[in-house]
């Protein structure tokens, strides 16, 4: 269950949902020892974009992946940080959250805009949210939703509008609501339960009203998705029945049990809302992020091998049916347990959900418990910086998982124990396109009209294609000046970024272009559901005559890969950058690799940087992927650190690839260290 209000952080509902058994600690890696050019006018013909499955690409950097974070407004969890901020202060905070998302190479935000039967826009149905000004109904002085959508789209982030259908208040006094609140005007629509007020899901007029209140935002604003979390019927309070028996007597004809009737009420909400969204704006998705367990196999053979709270029975959410019937466009179960949890194993639940979406068009995302990583009081497994990144590594075993959403923004920013940084380094090294949805069609390819090198980098300019509906563009950069292969465009290592479409032209500046390097640039167009066009013509930008040299640190985005067996340390001051990676020697194929983009085939000098220590390895194997195969050079890391050490001169091929590896396979004792490499063309 998502953290929401103080009650859900420590109260009975969360305790009931998560009282699933003792945590199983995950082994952590050992700690380090205590002691120690000019634009070309030549344009090639349009290049198709190959399917990634048909190409050899880096599995750690998928090109298609939704990466998002929740921005919670209820109780001012994330945004606004408190009530009563000026419009300028609220807007500055929100921009900061979007900048964080871009920094972590995310492509979506899920923002709570109707937390408790109130609104973050001038709704014609419900009052302004109290979480804006401190007073329900208080006008914040601007239109937050219009601002939020525009700012997200300016960064080409998808905006998923997060609504809570039935929650009204975290107290039981209707008179505390704004005088205009529909719950005050229709008290018969409400029930009190567990210290809260809810709309009664069993009343047809209530269901129609909440749908209309949410559709108001769909119709008036350019949102990308309607998003619901796990709150439909409230989580049960021990020994207290939800007070809807009279409603069941009035509306429950044809249902033999109140549970079946309640589930049907939620089913109708989902199915009807899906139909209304598609009638209004077919490109707007409906996504749900339910509690992670549908049913346990001990109750239902179709369920997962778990023993926790069952959302089907406890909150009447038949999520499996929604998927199998195609009533949602994506499902993002909150799988908020660690790998190996004795009663709700993350590994078991991703397996179950992957099988559940099989054969459907429903996209599977995973709600990640980023709030648990390194937090006080959490299970021992969550004190391991590798737990979160291991979740995403495991996800790659299930191709139907197409992304993750992190709860919540403030925990992404806190980055306790470095868990978020490690996850981003391991899995979000390059930008990614969101997975393509059902319907829609790829637009025509754009025309790349110019690529000009300037003091700030290489600036590209293009024209929109003549046909189709273009919502965004993807920009690619390839090393060298050779022919373009379709598989180059399937490799995320060549994806520079994305740009929201506006008007008939577009522009992008590559500020990372090396002065001495020659590149090919291409652009593709995407429709609202992320279907990608063929690539534009290629433009070649030559180097300006400077010597090519590149430094790749262990923290360089897209430049370093290591398994969870490699630890991270900042102990020794002679390191390059903020930290370095280390591992114990072992006779296994487990190298850490540095990836670089080389502009052309030729002779290169390869150097390494490491912090030396008497306890480190005397013969650390370094692998160099030359044009003629791998070559091994050993380095005594006990001395000579804190400077560039030459491995040798090698013939290397052009392109983006793993160039230098540090291996654990050595018979000598002491940690092997991977810190940074420098590659210089001779």
Gap between N and C termini, in Å? Answer: 58 Å
| Biggest sheet features | 8 strands, parallel, barrel
pLDDT < 50 stretches: 1-45
Helix content: 10-25%
The helix-and-strand class reads alpha+beta
Strand content: 25-35%
Determine Rg (CA atoms, Å).
27 Å
Principal-axes geometry comes out as globular
The helix count comes to: 15
Please state the average pLDDT score. Answer: 91
Would you report the number of β strands? 31
Biggest sheet strand order reads 2-3-4-8-9-10-11-12
Question: Could you describe the 3D structure shown?
Answer:
The protein has an eight-stranded parallel barrel with strand order 2-3-4-8-9-10-11-12, surrounded by five helices. Strands 1-19-18-15-16 form a five-stranded antiparallel β-sheet, with no helix packed on it. A five-stranded antiparallel β-sheet has the order 21-24-29-26-27, with no helix packed on it. The chain is built from 15 helices and 31 strands. Helix 3 (87-103) runs parallel beside helix 5 (144-154), helix 7 runs parallel beside helix 9 (258-280) and helix 13 (386-395) packs parallel to helix 15. The chain is α+β, with helices and mostly antiparallel strands and 682 residues long. It comes from Micromonospora reichwaldensis. Residues 1-30 form the signal peptide. This is Family 10 glycosylhydrolase.
């Amino acid at each position: 269950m998502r953290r929401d209000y103080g009650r859900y952080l420590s109260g009975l509902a969360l305790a009931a949902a998560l009282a699933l058994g003792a945590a199983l600690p995950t082994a952590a890696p050992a700690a380090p020892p205590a002691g120690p050019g000019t634009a070309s006018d030549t344009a090639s013909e349009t290049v198709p974009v190959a399917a990634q499955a048909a190409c050899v690409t880096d599995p750690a950097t998928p090109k298609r992946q939704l990466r998002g974070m929740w921005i919670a407004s209820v109780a001012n969890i994330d945004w606004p940080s408190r009530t009563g901020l000026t419009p300028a202060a609220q807007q500055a905070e929100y921009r900061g959250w979007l900048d964080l998302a871009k920094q972590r190479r995310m492509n979506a935000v899920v923002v709570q805009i109707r937390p408790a039967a109130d609104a973050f826009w001038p709704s014609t149905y419900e009052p302004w949210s109290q979480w804006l000004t401190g007073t329900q109904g208080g006008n914040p002085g601007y239109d937050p939703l219009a601002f939020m959508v525009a700012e997200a789209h300016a960064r080409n982030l998808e905006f998923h509008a997060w609504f809570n259908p039935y929650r009204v208040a975290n107290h039981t006094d209707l008179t505390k609501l704004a005088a205009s609140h529909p719950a005050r005007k229709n008290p018969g629509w409400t029930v009190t339960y567990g210290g809260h007020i809810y709309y009664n899901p069993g009343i047809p007029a209530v269901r129609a009203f909440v749908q209309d209140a949410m559709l108001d935002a769909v119709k008036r604003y350019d949102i990308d998705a309607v998003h619901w979390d796990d709150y439909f019927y409230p989580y049960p309070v021990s020994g207290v029945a939800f007070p809807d028996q009279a409603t069941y007597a009035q509306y429950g004809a044809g249902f033999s049990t109140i549970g079946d009737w309640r589930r049907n009420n939620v089913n109708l909400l989902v199915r009807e809302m899906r139909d209304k969204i598609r009638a209004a704006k077919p490109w707007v998705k409906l996504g749900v992020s339910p509690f992670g367990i549908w049913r346990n196999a001990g109750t239902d053979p179709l369920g997962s091998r778990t023993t926790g709270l069952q959302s089907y029975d406890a909150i009447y959410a038949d999520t499996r049916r929604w998927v199998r019937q195609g009533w949602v466009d994506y499902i993002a179960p909150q799988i908020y347990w660690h790998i190996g949890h004795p009663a709700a194993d993350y590994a078991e639940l991703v397996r179950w959900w992957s099988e559940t979406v099989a054969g459907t068009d429903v996209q599977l995302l995973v709600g990640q418990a980023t709030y648990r990583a390194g937090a006080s009081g959490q299970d021992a497994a969550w004190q391991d910086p590798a737990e979160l990144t291991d979740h995403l590594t495991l996800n790659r075993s299930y191709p139907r998982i197409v992304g993750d959403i992190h709860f919540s923004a403030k925990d992404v920013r806190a980055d306790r124990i470095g868990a978020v940084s490690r996850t981003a380094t391991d899995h979000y090294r390059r930008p990614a396109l969101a997975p393509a949805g059902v319907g829609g069609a790829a637009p025509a390819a754009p025309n790349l009209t110019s690529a000009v090198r300037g003091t700030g980098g290489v600036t590209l300019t293009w024209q929109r294609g003549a046909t189709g509906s273009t919502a965004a563009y993807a920009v690619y950069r390839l090393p060298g000046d050779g022919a373009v292969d379709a598989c180059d465009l399937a490799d995320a290592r060549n994806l520079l970024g994305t740009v929201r479409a506006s008007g008939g032209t577009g522009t992008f500046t590559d500020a990372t272009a090396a002065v001495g390097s020659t590149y090919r640039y291409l652009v593709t167009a995407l429709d609202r559901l992320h279907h990608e066009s063929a690539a534009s013509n290629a433009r070649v930008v030559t180097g300006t005559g400077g010597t090519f040299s590149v430094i790749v640190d262990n923290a360089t985005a897209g430049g370093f890969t290591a398994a969870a067996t490699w630890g991270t340390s900042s102990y020794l001051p002679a390191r390059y950058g903020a930290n370095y990676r280390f591992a114990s020697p072992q006779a296994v194929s487990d190298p850490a690799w540095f990836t670089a983009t080389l502009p052309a085939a030729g002779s290169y000098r390869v150097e390494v940087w490491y912090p030396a220590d008497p306890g480190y390895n005397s013969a650390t194997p370094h692998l160099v992927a030359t044009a003629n195969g791998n070559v091994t050079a050993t380095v005594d890391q006990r001395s000579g650190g804190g400077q560039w050490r030459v491995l040798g001169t090698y013939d290397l091929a052009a392109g983006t690839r793993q160039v230098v590896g540090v291996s654990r396979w050595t018979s000598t004792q002491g940690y092997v260290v991977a810190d940074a490499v420098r590659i210089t063309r001779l």
